[in-house]
Design goal:
It is a single chain. This protein is of the alpha/beta class and 339 residues long. The protein has one domain: Transcription Regulator spoIIAA (2-Layer Sandwich), CATH 3.30.750.180. The protein is built from 9 helices and 17 strands. It has a 7-stranded mixed sheet. A hairpin with a 2-residue loop joins strand 9 and strand 10. Helix 3 runs parallel beside helix 5. The radius of gyration is 19 Å and the shape is globular. The N terminus is likely disordered.
């Protein structure tokens, strides 16, 4: 694997006091690694101790040995391990497996275990509906969680829950799973965190001070991006309302397999690329079209996937820089952007 230094990233880290980033060459295939530097944030009297975490999204591993998606994930792990300053943890935003098979999830855990940093994970629909998350939870633990780390409150939520449509229909586990495979499947309906998730979130944030920086992870975006493809979380309005007490909330998600950005009130939403393939953009007008990446070149297997970096400054503002493995960014995103 060829490693090259990224000049813009090196200059940026030099300004922030962090050091060293190598990224895969443009010949590498299918990496999505959102590298997030929480450099220094302050909300009122609170301060954040500088640290880094990483994001890897949507590996979609198959059961076949040496599948190309295995290599993509292995390259993402190698890229993270090559960082001069290691992340405190790595966040996996769901869909480690493509069919939810135990061997696929075990393969993902085995590859991700090569990371030097510990991992945190939330499930995607592909991980969940074959066995209702049993294999995934056995490998990665709780599907909804929170923790405080160096001044930031982190939240991860299972955002792919739907009402039971399979019991009355007497579907097999495989039949139930298969209804979640296509993007526009009409049977499961719009998914989300359900009442159990809303109740959990209310209790979780009840004692968190409003000046605490909050970062939340969901598999799908926390806004109605394109419900026909399940590019949303059903309870997004309620979640945004509950998080409205905080001065600043940053939300990261996978699932859409491409760059997308939105801003609603105090919540800034950033979508990440995958390590598997780039989904097309839905046929709608995006609220921030300048943040739409150019479509993937089918002759370049590295196009449409890549990395991203985010830094949070002393005011709580963020700086995002997507790091594609081909020239697929709009002028707005080429040199990064504030959120």
């Amino acid at each position: 694997m060829s490693l090259i230094e990224v000049p813009n990233r090196r200059r940026f880290l030099g300004m922030t006091g962090a050091a060293g980033l190598s990224t895969l060459s443009a010949t590498a295939v299918g990496i999505n690694l959102g590298l997030v530097d929480v450099v220094s944030a302050q909300g009122g009297p609170r301060s954040v101790t500088p640290f880094r975490f990483a994001i890897i999204s949507d590996p979609h591993l198959y059961s076949e040995k040496d599948h190309v998606f295995d290599k993509h994930l292995e390259d993402a792990v190698a890229q993270t391990n090559a960082l001069a300053t290691q992340p405190d943890f790595v966040l996996i935003t769901g869909d480690v497996s493509h069919h939810g098979e135990a061997d696929q999830i075990a393969k993902g855990k085995r590859i991700l275990s090569k990371l030097k940093a510990p991992i945190k994970s939330i499930p995607g629909e592909h991980d969940w509906y074959l066995d209702m998350g049993a294999a995934w939870k056995g490998a990665f633990g709780a599907e909804t969680w929170s923790f405080d780390h160096k001044g930031i409150h982190f939240i991860g939520m299972n955002s792919i829950l739907v009402p039971d449509f399979w019991t009355a229909a007497k579907l097999t586990p495989a039949q139930r799973r298969d209804w979640f495979m296509p993007l526009n499947s009409p049977v499961p309906g719009v998914w989300g965190v359900a009442d159990i998730g809303l109740e959990w979130l209310a209790k979780d944030i009840a004692k968190v001070a409003p000046d605490t920086p909050v970062v939340i992870f969901t598999h799908s975006p926390l806004w109605d991006y394109y419900p026909r493809w399940n590019f949303q979380v059903k309870e997004s309005p309620q979640i945004r309302d509950m998080l409205g007490k905080f001065n600043n909330v940053m939300a990261f998600h996978g699932h859409v397999h491409h760059t997308v950005y939105n801003k609603i009130g105090n919540l800034t939403s950033v979508g990440t690329m995958s390590t598997s393939w780039p989904w097309p953009y839905p046929p709608i007008d995006l609220p921030y079209p300048a943040f739409q990446q150019n479509r993937a070149d089918p002759s370049n297997t590295a196009d449409g996937m890549g990395s991203a970096t985010v830094a949070i400054d002393r005011t709580g503002a963020g700086f995002v820089q997507h790091m594609p493995f081909a020239d697929s960014l709009s002028p707005t995103m080429k040199n990064g952007f504030k959120v």
